[in-house]
Amino acid sequence: MDDFEGLQATSGSGRFVSMNEHEESETMSGRGNRPVAVIQARVQWIENLLVTETLLKSELKKRVRERYGIQNPRTIEEYITRARERLMTRLMRTKDEHRLESLSFYEGMLHSTATTPTEKIRARERIDKLLGLEQPMQIQAELSTKPMGVPVDQLPLAQRKQLLDAVRTLPDNTHAEDGPW
Length: 181
Known about the structure:
Largest sheet: 2 strands, antiparallel
Oligomer: single chain
């Protein structure tokens, strides 16, 4: 299925038509319309921006305007809408489809001559994790109540405040009966 199937473009008459209706010809009819390939390339570029950068909508519009010299705000809005629709279509895939895409990406890295050995090792680790080959990690933490070895009054102020906050959060029955409290 073509990635642009179902997307709409305005024909010269003002009615919305599917992008597929124009795939036979190289250009779309009507005033100011661009070739389908040009529109697709622009939408793809915007989609990549949406994925790789966090931009305010105004900044995104500015970048599109600067890159392509588009002055009509409606045209820019239409391109952004199409790019977001493509992203939503990609996101609606199943978990297995996303896993397969990731697996293909990492396998491509393993076979690429441009990939460094370190990148290949990381790709292999990701593949192992995707396939469930990695053993689960166990993390153990211990809370020590050993004395710090430094009198409290000699600690920096920030540490004294942290210590005081920690003592205040202890349940009442943990204080020593004959302690300094």
